[in-house]
Amino acid sequence: MPDVGVIMGSDSDWPVMKAAAEALTEFGVAFEAHVVSAHRTPEKMIEYARTAADRGLKVIIAGAGGAAHLPGMVASTTPLPVIGVPVPLKYLDGMDSLLSIVQMPAGVPVATVSIGGARNAGLLAVRILAATDEALRSKMAAYQEDLKRLVAEKDAALQSEI
Amino acid sequence: MPDVGVIMGSDSDWPVMKAAAEALTEFGVAFEAHVVSAHRTPEKMIEYARTAADRGLKVIIAGAGGAAHLPGMVASTTPLPVIGVPVPLKYLDGMDSLLSIVQMPAGVPVATVSIGGARNAGLLAVRILAATDEALRSKMAAYQEDLKRLVAEKDAALQSEI
Amino acid sequence: MPDVGVIMGSDSDWPVMKAAAEALTEFGVAFEAHVVSAHRTPEKMIEYARTAADRGLKVIIAGAGGAAHLPGMVASTTPLPVIGVPVPLKYLDGMDSLLSIVQMPAGVPVATVSIGGARNAGLLAVRILAATDEALRSKMAAYQEDLKRLVAEKDAALQSEI
Amino acid sequence: MPDVGVIMGSDSDWPVMKAAAEALTEFGVAFEAHVVSAHRTPEKMIEYARTAADRGLKVIIAGAGGAAHLPGMVASTTPLPVIGVPVPLKYLDGMDSLLSIVQMPAGVPVATVSIGGARNAGLLAVRILAATDEALRSKMAAYQEDLKRLVAEKDAALQSEI
Amino acid sequence: MPDVGVIMGSDSDWPVMKAAAEALTEFGVAFEAHVVSAHRTPEKMIEYARTAADRGLKVIIAGAGGAAHLPGMVASTTPLPVIGVPVPLKYLDGMDSLLSIVQMPAGVPVATVSIGGARNAGLLAVRILAATDEALRSKMAAYQEDLKRLVAEKDAALQSEI
Amino acid sequence: MPDVGVIMGSDSDWPVMKAAAEALTEFGVAFEAHVVSAHRTPEKMIEYARTAADRGLKVIIAGAGGAAHLPGMVASTTPLPVIGVPVPLKYLDGMDSLLSIVQMPAGVPVATVSIGGARNAGLLAVRILAATDEALRSKMAAYQEDLKRLVAEKDAALQSEI
Amino acid sequence: MPDVGVIMGSDSDWPVMKAAAEALTEFGVAFEAHVVSAHRTPEKMIEYARTAADRGLKVIIAGAGGAAHLPGMVASTTPLPVIGVPVPLKYLDGMDSLLSIVQMPAGVPVATVSIGGARNAGLLAVRILAATDEALRSKMAAYQEDLKRLVAEKDAALQSEI
Amino acid sequence: MPDVGVIMGSDSDWPVMKAAAEALTEFGVAFEAHVVSAHRTPEKMIEYARTAADRGLKVIIAGAGGAAHLPGMVASTTPLPVIGVPVPLKYLDGMDSLLSIVQMPAGVPVATVSIGGARNAGLLAVRILAATDEALRSKMAAYQEDLKRLVAEKDAALQSEI
User: Fold this and answer.
1) pLDDT tens digits for range D15-70
2) Neighbours of chain C (3+ CB pairs under 8 A)
3) Contacts of D69 in chain C (CB under 8 A)
4) What does the alpha-carbon distance between residue E44 and residue D14 come to, in Å, rounded to a whole number?
């Protein structure tokens, strides 16, 4: 039974959104991925969101671009935490996507990450699950230590260049 | 039976949105007005949109602010033309509302008017109805003549000031 | 006799604007297309707009970029509903086009669609005509059902990828 | 016979635009002022612009806000230099007005000044007339010397404050 | 032992941030609140973040304005989920705060809510805790039902106004 | 003796600015072109501007990008009309150039054209000279007629495409 | 002999700029303050900048708004470090001032602080002088310790409020 | 012992940041360069900043992109002057980087240069060191003279082109 649902409005969002899936896989978190469009399949989207908690999902990651309504609409129909990924489209560099996702009215929050930041959406889902799962939190802490090592290696590489 | 449905996410949008109602009233177009929230009553919103055409509505005007999902979500669930009014909130001067409404994906258009432009939403609904109603179109043409007279009066007033 | 007039300021707008024509063709809506420039042929533009309704047009779609005056100027001279398409130019990603089209003063609305959103302009014209044409509205409803099927297919394709 | 025509879309623009008139008066340049609306009186606007040069006008100053089409439309119908003043409206701080005026396509220039910068529009008209009028140019040079004196006085006042 | 830490860079952020505390109180979630400044007390901030998980916190809400570094810096030093609230300052309407919080690099997510959206930050913290706490999730679902009732009441009130 | 001075901050601006020179050439207006940098040769720039009118120049066209100070600084030191061309650089699409040029304080106007709009700068210089030169104004009027013919040709070409 | 020159384009900038003077006074750094306008007194500005180093100044702080040319122009004429303060004017919240100051071309840097950030300009001048003045650097370090104490006091005050 | 520390959040910033190193090298100023990440190595960053002055550094140049926290965080932990370089990332053209760096709160200044303006960061460091080093200031003055010569050469080259 997956813990995280990764949804997106179109399969053209997958090249961006798969980075969320990869992050979840790295941490051994089970997920499902679906194309669910707020604008093309509104009832299916509502149904997906309404049943998500009962199906055992604990976090939903939703990516969308332009007038990006998917994350907010899903958040309106589930009590689960919803993470929104602003997908950049051809114009405006994702600024429209960002504002459409983050500027939610009081009552219905969406946990928004950076423009195109699907990997961080995956990592945020892990942190949310890890809030009450010590083993997963240790993995996250270890990952953060790895980031430090990576920086140290990059610094060493830089020394040889200057 | 009303021809136009005027909906908004909260009664706090009414001070902006009532200008749409006033324009419709001026042209003798019957309308209904409802608070229907994309984020607080998603199912009710879907239901409203799904049944709108069958109930006899011909145009829907939807106002919303911030991550303004109401116009686009309604447009996704009805074949009627939907007019979106970006309602300005406390920050960003309605730019978030505008982008959230206008930047709809291919397949589901929203006829967007200016920030806070509810009067124009009402007038646009009249023009849409008038496209196939010659009497109403004559009224719109007469209204446009009135605008000209108004400008002439203002110009005369200006002459006395300079 | 065409129902829809598709106009643009320059033939360089055609690669964007032809998507409106294609949508109209898909729905069997007759249209005409013309290059009519607000800035290079102002009198011709006024003439086009002034006679549009009498020639039998019911909706006008106008695309323009930069200081995009064509949609608003046409709307000022016809009682027909005018749909504006912000055409993105070399700089600013169409934000100038969008604001020049959508921010019309009270009295003269332009039904604005997304930046580069000519296909949606065509679909909006269909919805406007369908408001009083049940057969056309059924076609639009069927089209919306097709969009759902498309999403279902894309979702199936995604399942085989993850 | 006035040298400069000052026009604006509405008498509500006059509180901003009168600064242009004041600057012209300071330099003894004759002007006329009119309410001429691109969106409410398009034919009158075209007529105004078409006959301006023959009536003896040498420069036109046009102020407008929002989807500000007046300066560009006038420029399209006269060979005279047209100065555009972006009038700030209730939202967006005049950024929509600025882009709607300045981003004109190749072939039809508008000499744009700052948001709300009607005084500078007046001074620019003076400079344009002074380009071929040595007496007027001397006045402008003297005015610029006055600005220097003003700065010197302000600097002296500042010294007594610190 | 509190589950949520609410921190902010200055006590001047409290008028915005207390809405997060109120939401937590409504749901019976224990929290602590502290002034912790990224720029004035960097070591204390690092210490706060480093020990948060071990002290039993499960979620951190961090509010900051301008070059808003607090949420991202705390996220860099804890494996817990961090919610960022962009606090609007005197200029730019919180756009600088939003971008400084949401545009985090890959590896370190911040769950960003709307500009000034502290209430939603509190509700998001509840959702995160509720992901693995069925009783709390029921409360959230009940709260969402209440929102629906509220809309129904507002709609009724609107009917008496039109 | 040239009537128009075309200046720019760097020879890298020439690919943009030469369109101004071409427009002037088309109308038979004599010009000079120089690299004069506000930031690298401030004294030379001041000297250029200070002596421009006495050397017989009637209009100055100045192009600059980024923190574009050249047009405004030249305008501060000459009574001649100065036309500013915002040159787009690698980032921000020329929005910084535009604001740095157009937002001049009261007292010192710059006639700003569109981002990258050097051709229009040339045409605006022609209009300024033509304000008191009937022959040149006839040429400009003829040019505007040519634009109309061009649109008619493009419209004809479009007909064969649809 | 003052170490720091504080200049501004108009005495209307003083309410913002005096915070720089106050910061310098707190650290016992001698300064002079003058109204020097890039646009109204270009030659005086050049003279001020050209002689600043020889007169013993070590740092220049320049505040300006709108098309803010003073900091960059001064930087072009002195080898001293120049700190630019974007002064917010009536429209655009200082975004025009910021871009006009910070986006300098390669070769001529301006050390830009936040919009309205004159206090930080003063503190930055202190840091620059302190780079080679150990006593002053100790003062700055002590000031930074004071900031920490202030945060601790604010945190204590917050505890009594929640 | 180096006078200047050049740091950046990732080795991917080096293609931008090396221009700072080159400028320092041209002026014979010794520097060190390191990868120090605010978000991946927060403690190391604090340590770097805390010990910088004692290790003999006089100026720190920090480059970062997106939610760019490195310059501000370093400035919060050292009394040295810190120069911030907004590194442009894939989206938003560095506007997020700029605002995240420049909009620092009162008390902790960052000397911000243009987007991608690493060369100017190097030159600004030279000017800061030169404020109390006459030989270095002469070099900077000589460099500024060279810029003038360069402009003269470019102007000569332009003459042969027109």
Assistant:
1) 999 999 999 999 999 999 999 999 999 999 999 999 999 999 999 999 999 999 99
2) A, B, D, F
3) 38, 67, 69, 72-73, 100
4) 56
pLDDT at H3: 98
Q: Considering CB atoms only, which of C114, C144, C154 is closest to A11?
A: C154
Any E CB within 8 A of G141 CB: no
Burial G6-43 (b: 16+ CB within 10 A, else e): bbbbbbebbebbbbbbebbeebebebbbbbbbbbbbbe
D118-130 and D134-159 are packed helices; what angle lies between their axes, rounded to 10 degrees?
Answer: 140
**pLDDT for the residue H84:** 98
Is G13 a known ligand-binding residue? yes
Distance CA G110, CA H68 (A): 19
Tell me: is residue F127 an annotated ligand-binding position.
no
Spatial CA neighbour of C123 closest among C134, C109, C111, C108 = C111
Over residues A22-63, the pLDDT tens digits come to: 999 999 999 999 999 999 999 999 999 999 999 999 999 999
The answer to whether E147 and A73 are in contact (CB under 8 A) is no
The ipTM is 0.97
User: What is the C-alpha to C-alpha distance for residues E25 and E32, in angstroms, rounded to an integer?
Assistant: 11
Cα–Cα dist F105/F109, whole Å: 7
DSSP summary character for residue E8:
E
Measure CA E43 to chain center.
22
Q: Does C43 touch chain D (CB under 8 A)?
A: yes
Query: What's the alpha-carbon Rg for chain H, to the nearest Å?
Result: 17
Question: What is the share, in percent, of chain D residues with pLDDT greater than 90?
Answer: 98
The answer for residues whose C-beta is within 8 angstroms of residue H21's C-beta and 6 or more apart is A162, H6, H31, H33, H122
Strand ranges for D12-81 from DSSP E? 31-35, 59-65
User: Within an 8 Å CB–CB cutoff, is residue H43 touching chain E?
Assistant: yes
pLDDT band at B161 (very low <50, low <70, confident <90, very high): confident
Q: What is the CA radius of gyration of chain F?
A: 17
Rounded CA-CA distance C92/H69 in Å is: 27
Q: Judged by CB atoms within 8 Å, which residues 49-108 of F form the interface with D? A: 53, 58-59, 76, 79-83, 98, 102-108
Residue G1 has pLDDT above 90, yes or no: no
CA dihedral B101, B107, B111, B116 (to 10 degrees): 0
Distance CA H84, CA H115 (A): 10
What is the rounded distance in angstroms from the CA atom of residue F69 to the CA atom of residue C137? 57
Chains interfacing with H (3 or more CB pairs < 8 Å): A, E, F, G
Q: Mind listing the pLDDT tens digit for each residue in A61-79?
A: 999 999 999 999 999 999 9
N residues, chain E? 162
SS (H, E, C) F13-39: HHHHHHHHHHHHHHCCCCEEEEECCCC
User: Is A115 within 8 Å of A94 (Cβ atoms)?
Assistant: yes
